[in-house]
Amino acid sequence: MPTPDFNIVHYLSVALAAFVATYLLVPVVKRLAVRLDAVDYPSKRRINTQPIPRMGGVAIFCGLAAALIVQVAGTLCFGWPSALIPHPSMEIDYRLLGVSFLLIVVTGALDDVRSLSPKKKLAGQIVAAAVAAASGLTIGRIVNPFAPGELELGLLAYPITIVYLVAFANIINLIDGIDGLAAGVSAIASVTMFSIAVLVGRVDAAALSIAVFGACLAFLRYNFHPASVFMGDSGSLLLGFSLGTVSLLCVSRTAALTSILIPLIVAGVPILDTLSAIIRRLRGHVSIDQADKGHIHHRLIQEGFDQRQAVLLIYAWCILLSLGAVVINQVGVETRVVIFIVLLVCSAGFATRLHLFEPVLRHHYNPETHEDELVGPDDPAFEEEVQAEREERAEKREERREELRHLGRGLIDIAERRGDAESRHDDDEGDAKGGSGV
């Protein structure tokens, strides 16, 4: 049940402010992106068949800023609960937290315009996350799930928070591959986190999450297939960073395991997509930051779905996980475990069905150019490398079998020698006894 001070007009107004501001500013940002040449041109690794301006995240950021203004005005003029009061166990400097949001969107916008190197982009994300952690947005203790008591994180709370926020920013960034996907997934995750924030009485988390929801809905007007604008890294990093921030605001300084798991379940689809991408690239012996066409949306399109159908299927998957997260927050421990296992098994089964963990890039030595090349499934050399890997695995399996057979024969020989030794020992004892009887 919502908290007693829950005011639907309050949150609808915040969401509407984010929606209107984003909706009105997207066309302005589109023109700015074209002028700055922040445009996604068609290429082999992109799905769009015509140039599309990116940097739509700037409009989303302005939408969140508008929502903040309305929130503060409502608190001053209409007595709405303040969104600038942290949990009693936490001390948060919201001004510094706002600076972290500005830093993350600037990092993304610079990448949209100038295509920053991975190291520079990661550095910008780390700085933004560090500022957020410095604002007080950290978890100081975790309830020990294995024994009574708590685990004190101490100074580790800061690097853990930084890694957590950077990871959340990147899971949305990595899933942003087709029209409407990142915005829709973020909208579903944000409205789910809003419901959880309301239930636990966290006004700051509820206001931010409902603002993200409103901004995402407005952006979908331009971004759903066929998209006329992309959010770019300025948008995907901002949305992921926002969702990570909301999840931390929803818990107190002492976090229970369930409090940590719920946002991970809500963001389960992009997390799974990121995890499978890392495993897939490691198996193919390529860099984990090497782009490929093995993401969930790529696999669904390869299965014969069009862009809209693929996006809607992923939406449905996200909604299922979000509903599970909401239920987990309301039931006992035993039921939580059962629901979590069911969601995990279903997601793992879906991932296996789509072959998400199978490499889609492989190294191939080109005898003509004498160079090592990365080849995909469209290249005949890809199947050659797959077959070579299968043969190598078969050889290794046969080697292991031979080693096991050799080990087995050795154990049998040892057992037989031991048996013979014991038999001779028994005979010697018998002879000794017989001799003593004479």
Structure write-up:
By secondary structure, this protein is mainly α. The chain has 2 domains: 8-259, no CATH class; 371-437. The protein contains 14 helices and 7 strands. The chain has helices spanning 8-35, 57-78, 94-114, 118-134, 157-175, 181-199, 203-223, 232-249, 257-266, 268-283, 296-302, 307-328, 333-353, 380-437, and strands spanning 39-40, 52-53, 141-143, 150-152, 254-255, 362-366, 371-375. The strands form 3 sheets. A 3-stranded mixed sheet has the order 4-3-5. A two-stranded antiparallel sheet has the order 1-2. Strands 6-7 form a two-stranded antiparallel sheet. Helix 5 (157-175) crosses helix 8 (232-249) and helix 6 (181-199) runs antiparallel to helix 7 (203-223). It is globular and about 105 Å long. The relative contact order is 0.10. The mean pLDDT is 87.
Task: Indicate the overall shape.
Answer: globular
- Read across the widest sheet, the strand sequence of neighbours is 4-3-5
Q: Please give the count of helices.
A: 14
Give the number of DSSP strands: 7
Uncertain parts: none
- Largest sheet data: 3 strands, mixed
Average pLDDT works out at 87
Class of secondary structure makeup: mainly alpha
What portion of the residues fall into strands of 2 or more residues?
5-15%
Helix content: 55-70%
The first-to-last residue Cα distance is 96 Å
What does the radius of gyration come to? 28 Å
Task: Tell me the domain tally.
Answer: 2
Which sequence of SSEs, written as H and E, runs from N to C?
Answer: HEEHHHEEHHHHEHHHHHEEH
